[in-house]
Amino acid sequence: MRSVVNVVMIGPAGCGKTSLVASFGEWLKMELGEEAVYINLDPGALSLPYVPYYDVRSLVKVSDLMELENLGPNGAMIRAAEIIEEKLDEIIGEIGILDKGSGFRLIDTPGQMELFLFRDMGPRIVGALSSYSMTAAVYIMDPLLASSSSGLAIGLSMSMITRLRLQVPVVTVINKSDLEIADEVSIFLADESKLIDRIEAEERGLMADLSIKFLDFIKDLSKAMRVIKVSAKTGSGMADLYNIINDALCECGDLT
Ligand SMILES: Nc1nc2c(ncn2[C@@H]2O[C@H](COP(=O)(O)OP(=O)(O)OP(=O)(O)O)[C@@H](O)[C@H]2O)c(=O)[nH]1
Ligand SMILES: [Mg+2]
Of all residues in the chain, what percent are helix, strand and coil, respectively (each to 5)? Predict the structure, then answer.
């Protein structure tokens, strides 16, 4: 029987982290008969489309902090991150209790990706989980942000920054593939000449040169990066997501 596999969903606000946790979990159940365990690490979530085994809102809620400490949404989010960081050992203990079991543990992260990625929260939680069970991150690109050349460059770089910060295999997906704009992103990824045409149409002179060099640099660094399309809304691409996570983890151990 397979041991625990942690899958951490990460990406910019509104890219579909929560929706993808839910729809990938449903796919695992429908197609493989696997009951995923859901973890919510977003203290700002208002409602969740899955029933979490662990919910960080039992410790701190952004909406409560706004009221109790008279803070705005951003201030309350940062305060929540501080409170979470003070209790990281407790949180890791509660999530880690399931490690004797098997199957997928799907981890939803805060809307503001920087709170998870650039502060202690993400690296410490992922570091602890990956020290005793297989762990991969899914970097989710939002086609509404990645359809310009600079947006695509930022999306691909953030995926690599996620790899650097979390030190686990990262797979990159374009969510919302049910939207037409997602096709534009995959055309750019598949056909370099079209991407260069687009950069030249969007940027001028030095900026165009810089964009092209930057994308070259990212492509060099991410030669093995295969970007797949999924839709948390329609459920399409879930088998590809399963396979690409499997492939990424096969580098450090067999999934089956
Ligand atoms: N069309 C389309 N919309 C989607 C898809 N996935 C998510 N959405 C929509 O995108 C919005 C944000 O989805 P969430 O799942 O809350 O995204 P999130 O990244 O968890 O958002 P935050 O936690 O607030 O950062 C919602 O309106 C979803 O219905 C998708 O595959 N297709
Ligand atoms: Mg969310």
Answer: 55, 15, 30
Among 211, 221, 126, 217, smallest CA distance to 172 is for 221
Q: Is 112 in the pocket of ligand 1 (CB under 6 A)?
A: no
DSSP 51: -
What residues are paired with 63 via a beta bridge?
A: none
Query: Using a 6 Å cutoff on CB, does residue 57 contact ligand 1?
Result: no
pLDDT tens, residue by residue, 86-99:
999 999 988 876 65
In contact, 102 and 1? CB cutoff 8 Å: yes
| The model's pTM | 0.92
The owner of tokens 């005793």 is: 132
Two tokens at 211?
A: 């964009």
Structural domains of the chain ordered from first start: 4-141+165-175+227-250 (3.40.50.300)
The model's pLDDT over 144-168, given as tens digits with 9 standing for 90+, comes to 988 887 788 888 889 989 999 999 9
Instruction: Tokens for 60, please give them.
Output: 């701190």
